[in-house]
Amino acid sequence: MKASAISKPLVVSLIATPLFLLAAVASAGAGHGSYLVAKILFPFTMLSTLVFGSIIAPTIALAVLQFPFYGFILGKANVHGSLPARAAMLLLMHVLAVAACFILIGDSFS
């Protein structure tokens, strides 16, 4: 039961990650589209553009690992019986980061 409780959220996040990455890249259109989807799905990577001026390899790794990290945290919380509280915490953190993206980053971040 413990392994299953941990693995379900992690597996879901591992399936969602490539789909979310594809949606963000397709929306960005190689820099000629909109970064709206990227700001919503990967706000921490987008916030890093404030420091680096562009999306760089380490921040791409951050985007790739973001949802699996969420899945791992939620899986551990599921085992310990704190899933609703941890899910709310992750959601709040994510929403605040998205809000920061819309406040601090314009249409073009370069």
Task: Describe the 3D structure.
The protein is mostly helical and 110 residues long. It has one domain. It has six helices and no strands. The longest helix is centred in the first third of the chain and has 27 residues. The chain is elongated, with a radius of gyration of 15 Å. The N and C termini lie far apart (48 Å). The mean pLDDT is 89.
Give descriptors for this structure.
mainly alpha, 110 residues
Which parts are unreliable, with pLDDT below 50 for 5 consecutive residues or more? Answer: none
Helix/strand-derived class?
A: mainly alpha
Spatial extent as radius of gyration:
15 Å
Number of domains: 1
* Main pleated sheet: none
| Estimated helix fraction | over 70%
Shape: elongated
Number of helices: 6
Please indicate the percent range of residues in DSSP E strands (runs of 2 or more): under 5%
According to DSSP, the number of beta strands is 0
Q: Topology of this structure?
A:
Blueprint: H1 2-28, H2 36-41, H3 43-47, H4 49-52, H5 57-80, H6 83-104
Brief account:
The protein is an all-alpha fold. The protein has helices spanning 2-28, 36-41, 43-47, 49-52, 57-80, 83-104. Helix 1 packs antiparallel against helix 5 (57-80) and helix 5 (57-80) packs antiparallel against helix 6.
